[in-house]
Amino acid sequence: MEDSSRRGRPGRVLRVAASAGVMCAAVLTPGPATAQAPTAVAAELVAAGNYDYNGDGRDDIVARRDANGNLEVWPGDGAGGFGPRATIALGWDVFDLIETAGDLDADGHADLIARRADNGVLYFFAGSGAGLGSGVRIGSDWDTMSAVVAGHDYDGDGKADILATEAATGTLWLYPGTGTGTHGRRFRIGSDFDQVQELTAVGDLNEDGHADIVGVGAADECMYFYAGPGSERFAPKVRFDCGWDVMESAAAVGDFDGDGHADWVGRESATGLLYLFKGNGAGGYDSSPVIDVGWGSMTIA
Question: What is the pLDDT of residue 108?
Fold first, then answer.
């Protein structure tokens, strides 16, 4: 699982055919998608740079190449594109979940968490700005979770946290970060999240000073915005729009285009095209250009 809902929307989607389990679609020009206007202009307590993995001050994308298990950094250019990719680790095919984690150990560098497929153990990998440290075990039985997202401060204490959906109950748990690469005692922050097709930890999408999440409804394939309260529960969900079933592997990427707003990416399942969803600072996005091709064999962190 990625940082993610596995959905996104390159445009309003008109379904026209389905064959062999693959949905074909005609994609129309999107209009602006906005969930909620900001109530105040304030900074999320977690510092910028949550997605800078090579230390150049720009937000990046981390992804595993599924054919060989190589973990790669695709360095952002600050304008919505990439520089040359770099392999930073080998053997990551043992993990079934790879997640950007923000600065989980509060050392000024972006980190990762990953879950082993064979035993459900969760590992923390400290970033250095030039690579990753060795994995440190920070939890077990994480295979009971259907979604895990991280990288932002969801309880208002200035430390990056982890959110996870319990598959059996639909409970959304918050694991408060300690600033040392570990987490404290979990507490319930939401319910009925078994009705959500995974999640994406997008950061402060509506720029009210609190980190938010988005997710796709399991029943309707519509994307919903959950405004973060910075305390213990999210605000009631607000629908963006529908037709997100043609997308997968959505992942937060910080301010990838340098316009001051949080963005995310998503991959179109039928084509492997990678789209950038450019946040508008009001709880939604204004445009979603294609930024690369050939991402059908990648797992995005």
Answer: 94
